[in-house]
Amino acid sequence: MTQLQFTWTVGKVSSGKLLREYLLGEKFISRQALTDIKFAGGALFVNGEHVTVRYPLKEGDRVTVCFPDEVVSESMDPVHIPLSILYEDEHFLAVDKPPDMPTIPSKFRNTDSLAQAVLFYYRQKRIPSTIHAVNRLDRNTSGIVLFAKHRYGHSLLSRLQKRGELERTYIALCHGVPEKTKGTIDLPIGRKEGSIIERCVCKDGQHAKTHFAVLKSFKEYAMVRLKLDTGRTHQIRVHMSSIGHPLLGDDLYGGDGIFIKRQALHSQSLQFAHPFLEKLIEVEAPVPHDMEKLMK
């Protein structure tokens, strides 16, 4: 098993910094990761020599970080379920999740999950990784789920996500036709009192912003494109319900199951600046059949 490692050359602006400062501030390695590198089998080198985080850097120094091996959780069993892989490289894996499948296992339901299917795939391909889900989808939402193959990649993409630089676009079908062809819903979302599942718009909730555009109108419903500035639980479902246009099939937030037996929501596209390959990655997932036939 080859240990994950990265090497960088120190530039002029970083000369004089301690290695700790360089790794935390410029390479965005977390303090916990540095602790694990020290105590859990990792290593730090400068110009081939083993060093500590207190090493003072000079311009031209070659810094190498060796990360500890991934530890696979024993609480998650791999399950052989075929995957629809949309994108893969040595750092990331994007998969098209079907509806009626949770992203990760639930302690409340003994149901096979996408994460378990990915874990089986890793073992089959001898990929030395555990599960690092960059984003998650509700059980009955279909589309793109992105996994990092190591926790450093997970950390970097989580940072992009917090900065709004991991762009996700959804397609949905909602009851009725919004009066405006495009708009922004900027309403805070919090947990509904007395429920562990349901969310609602509430004054003391977390900031949440959703942009929508009507793509096509039908007699009783509309096809909309949605982009998120934030990633709150059930955000699209709550926001669309709050403006009087709940998603088709979403009985939790006022939708009717007459047209479709799940919330008509699909994560269609995702794009991000690859932190290691330094290029823009664009991933698309085809709209599933149950939604596609309603769009015709």
Structural write-up:
This protein has 296 residues and is α+β, with helices and mostly antiparallel strands. Among the domains are: 5-66, RNA-binding S4 domain (Structural Genomics Hypothetical 15.5 Kd Protein In mrcA-pckA Intergenic Region, Chain A); 169-266, Pseudouridine synthase (2-Layer Sandwich). 18% of the residues lie in helices and 28% in strands. The chain has six helices and 15 strands. Strands 5, 6, 7, 8, 9, 12, 13, 14 and 15 form a nine-stranded mixed beta sheet that branches. A four-stranded antiparallel beta sheet has the order 1-4-2-3, with no helix packed on it. The longest helix is centred in the middle third of the chain and has 12 residues, at 151-162. The radius of gyration is 22 Å and the shape is elongated. It starts with a strand and ends with a helix.
Please state the average pLDDT score: 94
Described by strand count, sense and barrel closure, the largest sheet is:
9 strands, mixed
- Please identify the structural class as seen in this structure: alpha+beta
The CATH C-level name of the domain at 169-266 is Alpha Beta
The sequence of SSEs as H and E is EHHEEEEEHEHEEEEEEHEEH
Work out the helix count: 6
- End-to-end distance, in Å? 50 Å
- The CATH homologous superfamily of the domain at 169-266 is named Pseudouridine synthase
Spans of at least 5 consecutive residues with low confidence: none
